[in-house]
Amino acid sequence: MASTHDNAKAMSQEMQTIINHARALVDATSGEVDDRIKEARAALQERLAATRGEVGELEDRLLEAVESADKYIHVKPYYAIGGTFIAGLFLGWFMSRK
Predict the structure, then answer these.
(1) Are 32 and 38 in contact (CB under 8 A)?
(2) Whole-angstrom Cα distance, residue 19 to residue 14?
(3) 15, burial (CB in 10 Å: exposed 0-12, middle 13-18, buried 19+)
(4) How many structural domains are present in the chain?
(5) Where are the transmembrane segments (predicted)?
(6) More exposed terminus of the chain, fewer Cβ within 10 Å: N or C?
(7) pTM
(8) Where in the sequence is the domain holding 20, given as residue range(s)?
(9) 78: confidence class by pLDDT, cuts 50, 70, 90
């Protein structure tokens, strides 16, 4: 379970890096006076504001789903093994078809 949190932290840090790069791009074009650049900056700033909330929401939902799956697998491990086996058989059959 510790690796799940590590992966979530890595994903969150990567998204923050992307957001920081986009913010730096907005700041770098602040002196430009072209109308197209102004419109692009406004759209990017708007999208950045929306993305910040969405990333947090997605991260929370992802962690809840992973924790739920982890609990289910610990409670009923044979169901998980059987389901994986059946999915592997189906996938193998599907891939072997011509």
Answers:
(1) yes
(2) 9
(3) middle
(4) 1
(5) 78-96
(6) C
(7) 0.47
(8) 2-96
(9) very high
CB contact at 8 A, 77 and 18: no
**CA–CA gap between residue 73 and residue 27 (Å, rounded):** 47
Q: 67: which 2 tokens?
A: 């924790």
Q: Highest-confidence range of 19-23, 44-48, 74-78, 86-90, by mean pLDDT? A: 86-90
Q: Which residue do the tokens 């890595």 mark?
A: 10
14-66 pLDDT, tens digit per residue, is: 777 777 777 777 777 767 667 777 777 777 777 777 777 777 788 788 888 88
Environment class of 12 (CB within 10 Å of its CB; exposed 0-12, middle 13-18, buried 19+): middle
